[in-house]
Amino acid sequence: MILDWLSVGLDPQQSTLFVQSQVKEHAELYVLLGMFTPLPWLERNPTYKEIQDQLTQKDLATYGFLGYPVLQAADIIIYKANGVPVGKDQLPHVELTREIARRFNFLYREVFPVPDALLTEVPLLPGTDGRKMSKSYGNCIFITESPKEVSDKILRMMTDPQRVRRNDPGNPEVCPAFAYHKVYSSAEEVAQVAHGCMTAEIGCVDCKKILIKNVLARIEPYYHRRLELEQDMDQVRAIIADGNGRARAEARQTMKEVRAAIGLAANG
Fold first, then answer.
1. Judging by beta carbons within 10 Å of its beta carbon (0-12, 13-18, 19+), is residue 40 exposed, middle or buried?
2. Phi/psi class of residue 64: alpha, beta or left (left: φ > 0; alpha: ψ in -120 to 50)?
3. Are 6 and 236 in contact (CB under 8 A)?
């Protein structure tokens, strides 16, 4: 994941890149937050219900899966974040984080800011099969994939299910491929694709070929940059080590305040 971040241009001097499992304070805060987070807060999480419905082949009736949003909350508030960049589907998780921060501040004392969600210009992008984009569903396009792999995925993308034949007019607004056009294609191309779909002047394959060209123009440089970074893993490991140290220092300071607020200062 850190290779991905570096390949798209995140500057480790501006952004602290670290491995969460190397900062043990995350786990400590997770346990403490779990002690006062009401069970109904977790059970009403729409993501929890959706994934249970979608991944029926997996046993998700576990504490770890139900309580994962509490760990996410710990990941956020341990650094006293004021804003969290997320997609629209993650808004319930940020709202839960806000509730947990408020509850801690009310029960003990003011330690944590209450973070706001920061939505981008594209707050939601569907997966290639039309469902929510999720690694668990296998419906994502990754910058680790070669141009051929990306092209093949786009060619297999779901389109308007009502457009059965080439000469059937379609509805671009229900087509996942068109949602990607809005992100990767020019305004002129978006208009052309929409018109061509609704009038059946172009077929789904034609639409996807235009999309492939534009997606690759955007993400192929990241793919090659990542390959270059893979050849210099010593540099990457040094970046991670530096980030781990910076993150650990911040997390330790926060946990000192948390323990003092709860009354555990004498023990840690």
1. exposed
2. alpha
3. yes
At 13, which amino acid appears?
Q
Which alpha helices (H) appear in 55-186, and where do they start and end? 63-66, 68-77, 91-107, 147-155, 176-184
Q: Phi/psi at 119 (nearest 5 deg)?
A: -90, 140
Short-list 224, 196, 227, CA closest to 210 = 196
Q: Is 135 helix (H, G, I), strand (E, B) or coil?
A: helix
Q: Kindly report, residue by residue over 189-226, the tens digit of the pLDDT.
A: 999 999 999 999 999 999 999 999 999 999 999 999 99
Q: What is the value of pTM for the model shown?
A: 0.83
Whole-angstrom Cα distance, residue 112 to residue 257?
10
Closest by Cα among 147, 149, 180, 176 to 163: 176
195: tokens are: 């018109």
- Give the right CATH number for 135-227 from 1.10.240.10, 1.25.40.10, 1.10.260.40, 1.10.3720.10: 1.10.240.10
> Which residues have C-beta within 8 Å of that of residue 161, sequence separation ≥ 6?
174
Mean pLDDT of 4-15: 95
Q: Where in the chain is the domain with CATH 1.10.240.10?
A: 135-227
Beta strands in the chain (DSSP E): 83-86, 116-119
**Apex 15 CA angle, 14 and 18, nearest 5:** 145
Q: What CATH code is assigned to 18-124+236-267?
A: 3.40.50.620
